[in-house]
Amino acid sequence: MSNPEYHSAIYKINPNKQIATRIIFKDYNCTLLPKKIEFNELAEILSKMQKICFEDKNVNNENTNRIIDLLLEKKDKTFIVAISLGYLPGVSDVMDFVDGGAATVQKSNLEFLKFQQPWINEVCRSKFKDIPLGKSPVNIVMEMIEKYIKLYLMKTSKKIDGMYLYVEKNPDHGNADFLLKYYEKYGFKKMAHEDNEYFYMYKGIKHSPSKLSTNVSLKKSINSQSTVSTNGSLGQNGGKKTRRNY
Questions:
Q1: What is the pLDDT of residue 1?
Q2: 122 in the Ramachandran plot: left (φ > 0), alpha (ψ -120 to 50) or beta?
Q3: Residue 180 and residue 187: Cα distance in Å, rounded?
Q4: Which of 46, 55, 159, 195 has the fewest CB atoms within 10 Å, measured from its CB?
């Protein structure tokens, strides 16, 4: 079988218009992915993938509708979705991918961080055919999310200090120890904070230094936030049970 060609992009979410707009990076091909995509089509792509990675059969489009609700959510809202989809030669329909990786990213403090931070959710890898082994599309997804945070998000907020995710202690699929080790290979470290349901993980990202200064004060701010993040006081976690990572 031929190697699939991967088309990858970040989609910026506009809940008012229910449209997601493609943001491209020069390192990744994205010609098959539409410049704009409606929420229902984006949710169909994600729910198709989750039939495999989460074993969700999407009965009566329940999962598709759940994802649309996530994209429309006002509290801890989703602001980007990252996708990397593999296509065999000659394919032109965006839904005809044979492999794919995806994740959503929300802004939240989860009621225990000092500031809102980007949280990665709905991480999914789905292969629909036996294909030659190559770079995982989840690798591409993680790379793009980190690039977006550094090139876009950190330019508008000095309080952003990295990327975060959480792992269920008793997941329906897989096990927590495997998932913790899995995310460690992407540079995430387990945080001191945990609760009855979740472990929390964090990967620090440095702000680019200012051209006019050494940015000493900014570095102090980042270090202060990181200390709160990894050793923060316990608190109730809001709105997370609808999110999941594979």
A1: 66
A2: left
A3: 11
A4: 55
